[in-house]
Design brief:
78% helix; globular; mainly alpha
């Protein structure tokens, strides 16, 4: 039992170190990264709390500064996560928007340069998160702001457990291995319960359906393109986070 607790604690710290600045820096091997996937939503919750606190403090000091608190929430999110996954939003925007398939799709996806579709995808995602955060800060709905990053990471885990990786040995492949059937089912069931218990009926149903559509759409795209990689998962996490924020605003 002690060994089990030690192993799970190490996996949680690994998830925190990989996804955020909140965990101690460590050398991460492939097996450790794969085991840590089950704790991605927990790391998302920790990040959500860390980025919500500055916004809450600002609103307590200056209740009329809802827009400033929202900007601080988003900026703190960049700081806490090192901006992780935002490049995935741009990459997915370029690759999907190009209409390419096969090798051309992957060449665009892995290109470090950003095109028009990537820029528009970043702008729309960022502005949506900022707008929703402003509404929630004005309403002092700190719980929703804390939980949204956890919901987004759960969407990434569910996607990883639903599709095959494009390349063996990649980060996407490690995530798919770690998000096996039991892990995927656990977070799917917990997410459904959380939506029902924490949101009114209409927002809860809207969030669940929208999240399933997001994961399903990315899974179908992955199947058409021969698998997924880390960009698919990163985009699912941020877009899932935005969906949770939107649902809380309804």
């Amino acid at each position: 039992m002690l060994e089990f607790c030690r192993r799970e604690w190490t996996s949680l710290l690994t998830a925190l170190a990989f996804l955020t600045r909140l965990g101690p820096a460590r050398c991460l091997d492939a097996a450790a990264l794969s085991r840590a996937v089950r704790y991605y939503p927990v790391a998302g919750l920790a990040a959500g709390v860390a980025q919500t606190l500055p916004a809450a403090v600002l609103m307590l000091a200056h209740p009329a500064w809802g827009a400033g608190a929202a900007w601080l929430y988003v900026a703190a999110g960049f700081a806490v996560t090192r901006g992780l996954h935002w490049d995935a939003v741009a990459d997915m925007g370029d690759a999907w928007g190009s209409g390419a398939s096969g090798p051309a799709f992957w060449r665009i996806l892995k290109d470090s340069r950003m095109g028009a579709y990537g820029a528009m995808s970043l702008l729309l995602t960022f502005s949506l998160e900022l707008l929703c955060a402003a509404v929630l800060c004005a309403a002092a709905d700190w719980g929703a702001l804390c939980l949204a990053p956890a919901w987004g990471r759960a969407c990434g885990v569910i996607l990883a457990g639903s599709a095959a990786p494009h390349a063996a040995g990649s980060l996407g492949a490690l995530a798919c291995t770690g998000a096996g059937g039991a892990v995927r089912a656990f977070w799917l069931a917990l997410g459904l319960c959380a939506a029902v218990l924490l949101l009114p009926p209409v927002p809860a149903v809207s969030l669940v359906l929208a999240s399933l559509a997001l994961v399903g759409g990315l899974r179908r795209l992955a199947r058409r393109q021969g698998g997924l990689n880390g960009d698919f998962l990163g985009a699912a996490m941020l877009w899932g986070e935005c969906l949770a924020l939107c649902a809380a605003c309804l």
